[in-house]
Each structure stands twice: as structure tokens, then as C-alpha cells.
Amino acid sequence: MIEQAGEVLGGGTAAVDGLGAPFQVWVVPALLGLGLAASTGLRTFLPLLMLALAARFGWFGVELNEQMQWLHSDAAVAALGVAAAVEFTADKIPVVDNALSGIGLVVRPLAAALAAGSLFVGVDPLLAAVAGIIVGAPTALAFNAAQGGLRLASTATTGGLGNPVVSLSEDVLAFLTALLALLAPVLVPVFLVILAVVVFRTARRLRRLPERQSA
């Protein structure tokens, strides 16, 4: 993960070495955690499943700190897989999808803090947990709130019939956001700004649709 970040910055591994320990210990994990937290704001379990699989098989150079090694155990991966499948299906059901979004206001920031905190390797466990909360919780909360606004706008304009399409779009966005974070953490801030603008504009257009129809 660190070598990939250095290559994106244009200097390869040498550039990372030049930036020193703070970059390796804090910056890259924070950027990766930021991307996973944003993805978690849209889907609770899919980003955790992707993180667990990446750590389990050593993909993208992802490592978890000692306290979070259980996340890529057989039981955890199986449980996350089932939970992600259930969430994917349930979110396509009208009314249930809005309930999941409401529950997500509590669950998703916790999941995001867990994911982000697990990435700070070689630091004090308390500092890792605090960093995970700072990076993960507000980001997931913001994206979950944006998702809730988009879902309410879709419900108001389509009577809930368009919600499965919106939900499927969120599945794709959650997957791509988590994948980008794993592949190129340094690109996460730019991508999240673009994603936030797209979500905001889409929700605003959906809210204005009834006014245009009545006019």
C-alpha cells in the first residue's frame, strides 16, 4: 500500500522513504481509512469485507494492527460476507431501505471507526482507536446523511419505485470507493470531493422534480 502510494505521487518507493515514518504510519493509513469510511457511509459491511479479504490475502500491501487481526479470520470473513449479502438484498426493498439508512446513522460510523483504526500499524492501540474515530466516524456519518437525503428525495419523487435503482448505484459507488482507497489512497480526497458534489446535485434535482412536474 505504501509503495503504491509513493508511485502515485511520482517518486516510487524512494519518495515514500524520503517522507519518512509519519507518512508511512499516519498519512497513508488515514487516507485509506478515509476512503473506506466514505464507502462504509453507503454500505456497512461491504467495505469491511473488502478490507478483511485484502488483509487476509495480502492484497495491495494492506496490513492490520495487532488488535484487529481477528477481522480477517475465517469466522469474521464468513460473517461479513453473509451480512454484506443480506444488506445488499434488504436495501432493495422499499421501506426497509429507509430503515437501514436510519440504523446506519449509528452503525456505520462505528464500522468506519473500526475499519480506519485497524490500519494504524505500529502505534499505541489507544492512539490507533482515537485516529480511527477521528478519520472514520465523521466521514461515514456525512456520507450516510447524504445517502439518506438522496433516498428520501427518490421516495418523494418516485413513491419508492426508483429506490432499488438508487440502491444499486450506491452499491457500485461503495465498491469503487473502497477499491480506489485500497489501490491508490492518495487519490481518495479528490475522488470524495467529486462524489460529494455528484450526490448533492442528484439529490437537489430529485427534490426539484415535483415542482417542475406541477409547474
Care to describe what's here?
This protein is an all-alpha fold. The model is unreliable at 2-19 (pLDDT under 50). The protein is 79% helix and 0% strand. The relative contact order is 0.17. The protein has helices spanning 2-9, 12-19, 21-40, 46-57, 74-90, 96-117, 125-158, 163-183, 188-214. Helix 4 packs antiparallel against helix 5 (74-90).
Defining traits:
215 residues, mainly alpha, 9 helices, 0% strand, disordered N terminus
Beta-strand content bin: under 5%
* Approximate helicity band: over 70%
Alpha-beta classification: mainly alpha
Low-confidence stretches: 2-19
Overall morphology? globular
Query: How many DSSP E strands?
Result: 0
Describe the biggest sheet?
A: none
Query: How many distinct helices?
Result: 9
Radius of gyration: 18 Å
**Average pLDDT across residues?**
86
Order of helices and strands: HHHHHHHHH
Terminal Cα span = 53 Å
In brief:
With 215 residues, the chain is an all-alpha fold. It has helices spanning 2-9, 12-19, 21-40, 46-57, 74-90, 96-117, 125-158, 163-183, 188-214. Residues 2-19 have low confidence and may be disordered.
List the helices and strands and how they pair.
Elements: H1 2-9, H2 12-19, H3 21-40, H4 46-57, H5 74-90, H6 96-117, H7 125-158, H8 163-183, H9 188-214
Helix pairs in contact: 1-2, 3-4, 3-6, 3-7, 3-8, 4-5, 4-8, 6-7, 7-8, 7-9
